[in-house]
Amino acid sequence: MVIAGVGTDVVELERVRAVFRRQGQRFAERVLSPGERLRMADWPVDRQVEYLAGRFAAKEAMAKAAGCGLAGLGMTSVEIVPCPTGLTVRWLDELPVRHKEGHWHVSITHSRTVAFAVAVWELLDPPAERDVSGCAGPLK
Predict the structure, then answer these.
(1) What confidence tens digit (pLDDT) does each residue in 95-130 have?
(2) What is the mean pLDDT of the chain?
(3) Per the domain annotation, does 37 fall within a domain?
(4) Which helix (H) or strand (E) holds 6?
(5) CATH number for the domain including 75?
(6) Residue 68 is part of which domain span?
(7) Closest CA to 119 of 133, 129, 111, 109
(8) Overall pTM surpassing 0.70 (yes/no)
(9) Residue 137: predicted pLDDT
(10) 114: closest CA among 31, 52, 59?
(11) 135 found inside a domain
(12) Residue 13: CB partners within 8 Å, gap ≥ 6?
């Protein structure tokens, strides 16, 4: 297996709280899968904000690792669920996109003010060569 991409993201809980206060479940419907929304439905608002911020950060980190942006990832088409060994990624639609191949490793953590996530995308076969002509050369 080879690492095809690594992404990170940090989200301020207060920003999520403000959006959630204004938009309520509409915001959750844009970020979370149906299963993720069901999981948090009966939680206190503070825990819902923390959960939303963590899932948003994780999905943004995945989009960065895949190099596709949030629109290419489809926030509601991916579900991040707890399992005995950590978090597992489930794809909920049938769209044939490359970032569904291989294996995803996702980790989410929180403090009192932020949620942080890291995503690592592993593939069985190395991806095609990337065009790095616009990138800076080695440091001298």
Answers:
(1) 656 777 888 999 999 999 999 999 999 988 766 665
(2) 87
(3) yes
(4) strand 2-12
(5) 3.90.470.20
(6) 2-123
(7) 109
(8) yes
(9) 44
(10) 52
(11) no
(12) 49, 50, 53, 110, 112, 113, 114, 115
Instruction: Tell me whether residue 96 is in a domain.
Output: yes
- Kindly state the DSSP code that residue 98 receives in the 8-state scheme: G
User: What is the mean predicted confidence (pLDDT) over 13-18?
Assistant: 97
The two structure tokens encoding residue 90: 């489930």
Is position 110 annotated as part of the catalytic site?
yes
Q: Which of 59, 100, 110, 140 is catalytic?
A: 110
Q: Is the distance from CB of 20 to CB of 28 less than 8 angstroms?
A: yes
pLDDT above 70 (res 135): no
**Domain membership flag for residue 16:** yes
The number of domains in the chain is 1
Rounded CA separation 107/87 (Å): 7
Provide CB contacts within 8 A for 10, sequence distance 6+: 57, 114, 115, 116, 117
| Active-site residue, 105 included | no
